[in-house]
Amino acid sequence: xxxxxxxxxxxxxxxxxxxxxxxxxxxxxxxxxxxxxxxxxxxxxxxxxxxxxxxxxxxxxxxxxxxxxxxxxxxxxxxxxxxxxxxxxxxxxxxxxxxxxxxxxxxxxxxxxxxxxxxxxxxxxxxxxxxxxxxxxxxxxxxxxxxxxxxxxxxxxxxxxxxxxxxxxxxxxxxxxxxxxxxxxxxxxxxxxxxxxxxxxxxxxxxx
Length: 208
Known about the structure:
Elements: E1 7-25, E2 40-60, E3 63-74, E4 78-82, E5 85-92, E6 95-108, E7 111-123, E8 127-130, E9 137-138, E10 144-159, E11 162-173, E12 176-182, E13 187-207
Antiparallel strand pairs: 1-2, 1-13, 2-3, 3-6, 4-5, 5-8, 6-7, 7-10, 8-9, 10-11, 11-13, 12-13
């Protein structure tokens, strides 16, 4: 019997995420930069990701169209010192994330190959702190940021209402300016922070 992919489904997933937090030294409110205007440094981040997903498929012969949304935890964490001012560091702590994506695929009976893409949002918790001789600047967090994601995967229906999937996504969110009072007050130092990365995950779905 040929498996029908059309209809509602929901499930859970888990995997690993890794990426880069790029921090740019920008002008403070009273002029001047922390070390060098426009200087950038990268922080490599990584960690566990997991959550739940739900979606709906339409099927025409071997072609499958769908929409899917998921919410979960993106534990991409890391810290790196500013090479031009090593007592200053950029930190990313990870947090909640969500996506809303379209899917388009080809079904070979119980195996579905698909591409996917759409909206991506996450709270990376990225910030900058440091200074000499003590922490004289502690910026705000980037908070929740929106961007885009794209990738693909394969799904296998191993039982009448159950399927397993493996999926890869690339994600990217735009620059976010963060700032913090420094140098005894009166000066607000700013940095631009951008997060990009990849995630791979396995999941299970129940088809209603």
